[in-house]
Write a structure and sequence with these properties.
The chain is of the alpha/beta class and 334 residues long. Helix content is 45%, strand content 15%. Helix 9 links the parallel strand 6 and strand 7. About 2% of the residues have low confidence. This is Alanine racemase.
Length: 334
């Protein structure tokens, strides 16, 4: 027995083949009573659309390109994996799927996207890890390839983007620590020039300034690569200073875990807050700023595909989402 076809559904519902096609692909064109009759026939016959054939007819692959990145060798946990899963879930809900690929650098990524788009393998692409002056957005704009970016470049009015309010996250951490009685609050972060790291440092600096705590705190701003060893080493520097801090805000959970290791080895009293709320944070009872990654995934798909039926078009090009501070024992008052 052959699987049911569009013609079988059309005969069962007493409509044309085109009407069945409209119900599947443009239901708003079909009167409600006719649509209900066709949907009943589809359900009774167990008809399943041929998505490959639909894609060919509609000149769309229903695939979204995404460059998968290797995990940083020194990181204890990565937000990348959570984002990839959230993006795949959000894409599935919109009847889109991810096509993963690798690239050597941003220029190679643009070249791969161009080849995949030209071959009809993808309809657009989601960019991850955007930095200031990133060459990928202008490159894809020039090629007229649809894309949406997770992060901001500084020239974002020309393309859709979604980002986390990183400065608000570290500012919330400072507010929490100030409320707990801390006045010397250090920051351990990336070297200057990394967009995300700079915004997290800005939040720390702004919050200290609002509380009149910035003067005399410049020696408490330390930077290094995102690794456990770096966090541990910078904690040694902070604790050995003549006026050591009583608390630290770290740009990542990896750096925070390194700070905690030194604190515990030296039996020091130092409150610590990380960023990203990775599984590492939960395991170490580390306070951390949680990114709403699931919401980011859905926002990225909407940004790439445009407004869905029922939504108002013309929404802002970018969307900035607020993170949430998760307080655990590492920064709780003693």
């Amino acid at each position: 027995m052959h699987p049911p076809t569009v013609e079988d559904v059309a005969r069962a519902a007493g409509v044309s083949r085109q009407t069945v096609s409209n119900v599947l692909n443009a239901p708003q064109r079909v009167r409600p009573e006719t649509r209900a009759r066709v949907e009943t026939a589809i359900e009774q016959l167990g008809y399943r659309p041929n998505r490959v054939a639909q894609s060919l007819r509609a000149a769309t692959s229903r695939m979204i390109g995404y460059r998968i990145e290797p995990m940083h060798p020194h990181a204890l946990g990565s937000i990348h994996d959570r984002f990839l899963h959230a993006l795949a879930e959000a894409g599935r809900a919109a009847d889109r799927h991810l096509l993963l690929f690798t690239a050597d650098d941003p220029q190679d990524e643009v070249a791969n996207v161009q080849a995949l788009h030209r071959a009809g393998a993808i309809d657009g692409v989601v960019l991850y890890g955007i930095q200031s002056g990133d060459p990928r957005p202008p490159g894809l704009r020039q090629l007229r390839i649809p894309f949406a970016a997770f992060g901001r470049t500084g020239a974002d009015a020309e393309h859709p983007w979604v980002d986390i309010d990183n400065a608000a996250g570290t500012a919330a951490a400072v507010e929490h620590l100030v409320t707990g009685g801390h006045r010397r609050i250090a920051f351990v972060g990336y070297p200057q020039g990394a967009a995300v790291g700079d915004r997290r440092a800005d939040g720390w600096r702004t919050a200290l300034d609002q509380h009149g705590l910035l003067d005399g705190s410049h020696h408490l701003d330390l930077r290094g690569e995102d690794s456990l060893a770096t966090g541990s080493r910078l904690a040694e520097v902070l604790l050995d200073h003549p006026t050591p801090p009583t608390a630290v805000v770290a740009a990542t959970d990896t750096l925070a875990a390194g700070v905690l290791r030194t604190v515990r080895q030296r039996h020091a009293r130092l409150a610590v807050v990380g960023f990203d709320d990775t599984p590492t944070a939960g395991a170490l009872d580390l306070s951390s700023v949680r990114q709403p990654i699931e919401a980011v995934g859905h926002a990225m798909i909407r940004a790439l595909l445009g407004p869905v039926p029922g939504e108002t078009p013309g929404e802002p090009t970018g969307q900035l989402l607020a993170p949430e501070l998760i307080v655990r024992a590492s920064s709780a008052p003693h």
